[in-house]
Amino acid sequence: MNKIKNSIDFFATRKSISVKNLKYPGPNQNQTMKILKNALRVPDHGKLEPWRIVLITEDCKKNYISIMEQRGKEINIDPLKIEKSKINLLTAPLIIAVICSPLTDSKIPEIEQVLSCGALCMNVLNNFLANGWGANWLTGWMVNDNELGKLAFNNSKNEFVAGYIYVGSYEETNPDRPRPLIEKKISYYKKKL
After folding, report:
1. Residue 127, in any domain of the structure
2. Residues paired with 161 in a beta bridge
3. Which terminus of the chain has fewer Cβ atoms in its 10 Å neighbourhood, N or C?
4. In this structure, are residues 124 and 53 in contact, taking their beta carbons and an 8 Å threshold?
5. Helix axes 61-74, 79-91, angle to 10 degrees
6. Three-class SS of residue 70?
């Protein structure tokens, strides 16, 4: 685990750690719960909490992998993609599935609930990184197949997997990728006549 000096340095250099660079040990249960408790502090219009978290720990990985492999074969996912997913799951000591659970009977628009869940994914990722762990938020076919979410996590018809956050120790990091140029991404509103 690597220690972060301060929030300004953290956000100025923040980057996800490739899953292939994650290794054991991962955070223990107390560390995980403390980090997740902080990560739950996300924007949530209407205080709906339209999300939930499922931890895939070492003792249940084989079961999840079995469901994932079977489902991948059923929907003709490229066997190499299935194998890559399996390697990722076995490499990381902890996998966190973030489930979006928008409420359909709420006056809060669904898009706001989905954005709250996206904020949760980012907050989970950043909280692990800020606490010195390696972490990465992945999507891909395991997220895009709603049936896998139903089989593995008992997702209701309104729920979907927003992402998997892989967490572990790390030593080496990837070189930083090119980042957006601020002058190309930020503008000032101009009065309309």
Report:
1. yes
2. 99
3. C
4. yes
5. 170
6. helix
Domain span including residue 28: 20-170
- DSSP letter at 131 equals T
Distances from the Cα of 96 to the Cα of 27, 33, 142, 178, angstroms: 12, 12, 13, 27
Question: What confidence score (pLDDT) does residue 55 get?
Answer: 98
pLDDT digits (tens, 9 = 90+) for 44-84: 999 999 999 999 999 999 999 999 999 999 999 999 999 99
- CA gap 81, 108 in Å, rounded: 37
Question: Can you tell me the distance from the alpha carbon of 66 to that of 137, in angstroms, rounded to the nearest whole number?
Answer: 21
* Torsion sign over Cα 88, 89, 93, 99: positive
Taken in order 131, 134, 139, 145, the sign of the CA dihedral is: negative
Report DSSP state, residue 19: G
Q: Which residues of the chain have pLDDT under 70?
A: 1-5, 173
**CATH number of the domain encompassing residue 155:** 3.40.109.10
In the three-class reduction of DSSP (H, G, I as helix; E, B as strand; rest coil), residue 27 is classed as coil
Range list of β-strands (E), the chain: 51-56, 94-100, 134-138, 160-168
pLDDT at 172: 72
Is residue 67 assigned to a domain?
Answer: yes
